[in-house]
Structures
1.
Amino acid sequence: MELHLFNTLTRTKELFTPLDPPQVGLYTCGPTVYNYAHIGNLRTYIFQDILKRVMTYNGLKVKHVMNITDVGHLTGDRDMGEDKLEKGAEREGKTAWEIAEYYTEAFKKDLKLLNIVEPTIWCKATDTIGEQIGLIRKLEDKGYTYRIGDGIYFDTSKFENYNKLSHQKLEALEEGARVEKNPEKRNATDFALWKFSPPDAKRQMEWPSPWGVGFPGWHIECSAMSMKFLKERLDIHCGGTDHIDVHHTNEIAQSEAATGKPFFRFWLHGAFLIISGGKKMAKSEGNFLTLEASFVKKGLDPLVYRFATFQSQYRKPMEYSPESVEAAKNGLLHLRNQVRTLKEIASSTGDVDEGFKNKFREAVNNDLNMPQALAVVQELLKSDLDPAAKLATVLDYDRVMGLDLDKIEVQQVLPDDIQTLVDARKKAREEKQWDLSDQLRDQIQALGYEVQDGPKGMKVFKP
Ligand SMILES: [Zn+2]
């Protein structure tokens, strides 16, 4: 079975084969830990999780590295402005190290709630300062760097095809880069490799270097870490579409300039989350929704969000609204009920149906087409295959979907307070006290349980 992925570098869907099968080296740009991730960020991590699970489903062995940016990312993205971590520290009256620690944990908790498989290697930028300095020295030896007042910069005019990832004209990239004026730079697109600490103030995070005390630029960490942990196995590099023009373009330039060899072969980018009104979700837009506030605190299963993202292919913008959340909630509930029913009626353990497995794999192997994959799931569940085979097959699909379908219980033992309400409602129904029955149903549901009245009586379960 062949896996096809859309490669931003070539702007085409290409057949993916790892350099050294069955091993795959995957690098995904991680969070800058100065604030919570918003659900638009998390959409990107869900897409990367699907990519990883699909590769595993195809028998590949994925080594996944994710960085934690805990220094060097400035408010302007282009080496101007304040350090996001130091600014966060000031905002919250903590040290930059405490801020990093706190938001790293919050991020990991979000991933867990979304059933995102942890990377093989987590790596903090502040743990690879030596490697980053080493890489900058290499670039310096090869004549790609120059020094100005606030740091050591990469001269993008010395790197041919600087715009090969973004496919934009160089002038357009320069135009974008001019928003932040640094008159000392030779070219608008040049970027910092090493920034000096301000002469008049001591930073919380700073290190000695051959050029002076300071801290690394944002882009160099990802080049240093991917080379350190993946060595030559540079198969796939992922991020959000907002990484294409600056961050990933600069990673490619500095990495290929330093090694003289091609950097990653495949570049995959996840599209934005769009909220009502057509705006993309971004911290800077002030429409910042966290998983905690939008799901956990509302008693909504975070996996509803995971399921919601499957409704759009990862390269297409995803609309987010109360209606889309409601639709995903109902869709996931329906799927879980279908699986619960199968568990109730399947008399034996079945085998995965190869025909349906191939259909599903064809969908996900087609550039991770999850909407198509969900259509296959429903086709399977509506087919006349025997329940045991259906169940085995849908649980096999869940290795990719990650919706905890294997954890659905047929007979749930209810907590005492819920059981009391259930008993009261049974009695009310026997006595045809319909208003009371409805009230009790609302009470049970308010406590996070689903109530279904069917021919066999009332079913109550945690969805
Ligand atoms: Zn990165």
Note: The first helix runs from residue 39 to 57.
2.
Amino acid sequence: MYGFNWRGRLVETRVLLVSLATAAGLWALPAPARAQTPALQAQAVAPNVYMVQGESALGSAANRNFISNAGFVVTPAGVVVIDALGSPVLARELLEAIARITPQPVKVLVVTHYHADHIYGLQVFKDRGVELIAHEAGRLYLNSDTAVLRLKASREELAPWVDDATRLVAADRWISAPYRFSLGGTEFVVQPAGPAHTPEDLVVALPSSGVLFAGDLVFRGRIPFVGQADSGRWVQALDRLLAMKPQTIVPGHGPVSNQAVDDLQLTRDYLQHLRATMGEAARNLEPFEEAYARADWSRFERLPLFRAANRINAYNTYLLMERSPP
Ligand SMILES: [Zn+2]
């Protein structure tokens, strides 16, 4: 929504610049392009269920955009992968990590959402004939200027790991309602959870083991990037996940959680705190700077990426609450 007064325009312009800066990864620190990072190591989180854990950092050439997690589930009839990581080289290393555990081929990959750090490895799976599943709202992103600009910026920021050969990949199966399938006797429930972190959020539940692959709906051990997310619906989505009472959560970022409910609660409380403090400020027409300085961040300020993310999260929430009060 664009305002008609100069202040509104100014605010919208700042939002756009912030979005572009985020999209371009402009605050990523320059780093040597060929720094050595350890090979991906799969860790077991439940019987036949594994994850690889990205670094708690912003994407950079030094970390090859290995800043998000991926999961996989081994069955006697093939492997199901959740998310494709942030560059093709990482996806190839994920396949190698899987091959160290099982000779079974990857059959299906579920995309939790179309953010760069989860999708730039997709082409590696597509080229091997893996069936890709995503929420149909991801189509909008794929066809957006944002996706094109982001990839263009990433080719510079993340070179040589993201380059001209890196491409955006559509799903083979677009879903818009819960989708259940079974492979090798294991049942998978792919559940739409958005619009929350993104319009196309999906989570994957394994009823047999109580594992929930939660994508970026749950950030563990760090402050989430709220971005342009609809935090009100995100809170509602977290409430629905809380009602599922999962035992184990593999989040999109950070370590596996065996206190699934506590971690869902922390992400929920952080979003709710943003909405409460910034919502009150917007209602009282209090300037953002004053409201931000006055708010109590003590519960969250020791979490990683607080300094990088909290202020922009608060600012985006302030604008959101101005536009659409609860
Ligand atoms: Zn992410």
Note: Residues 68, 115, 117-118, 216, 252-253 surround zinc ion (CB under 6 Å).
